[in-house]
Amino acid sequence: MKLKLNKKIRENKDLSNNAILAYIGLMSCLKMDYEPIFINRYMMSYYLTGKRKYMRRFDESLKLGIKELIDNKIIDCYEHSSTNYFIGFKNIKLEQEDKFVFVDFDDVRKIMSCDYQGKISLLRFYISLLGTFISKNR
Q: What is the pTM of this model?
């Protein structure tokens, strides 16, 4: 599966690595024809890493990242509990003039399932690196 990631978001220096992680996780769960969608952080964590084991630090990164995306009005949160969210994506749909990069989800999962402690930073670096030489307009 290829993920289409918006340049305005992936290169936004005001967003933390956690926000980029949450953005990629949300984009991997996104179905444009359903809005809002139900998201569970545990489901996102499993989807990103392929591991069913609860990882507190990783879950906290997703939680902080989702909060940051909501605070920056990149996504809309209509309702949430401790780990569940009803989220709208109208603010991250790509416009005609937006630049984007396709990222292979298998590569994302390889990075996120490794034992390296800096894997969230590594993921952001990987996406930035791809964007430097394969960024395209719609």
A: 0.68
Rounded to 10 degrees, what is the CA torsion of 9, 71, 26, 85?
-170
Task: Give the pLDDT band (50/70/90) at residue 87.
Answer: confident
The residue length of the chain stands at 138
Instruction: Name the 3-class secondary structure at 79.
Output: strand
Element (H, E) at 131: helix 119-134
Lowest average pLDDT, out of 1-5, 36-40, 113-117, 125-129, goes to 1-5
> How would DSSP label each residue in 25-72?
HHHHH--TTSSSEEEEHHHHHHHHH---S--HHHHHHHHHHHHHHHHT
Residue recorded with tokens 């030489």? 133
How far, in Å, CA of 30 to CA of 87, rounded?
10
Phi/psi region, residue 50 (left: phi>0; alpha: psi -120 to 50; beta: rest), is: left
Backbone angles phi and psi of 49, in degrees to 5: -105, -25
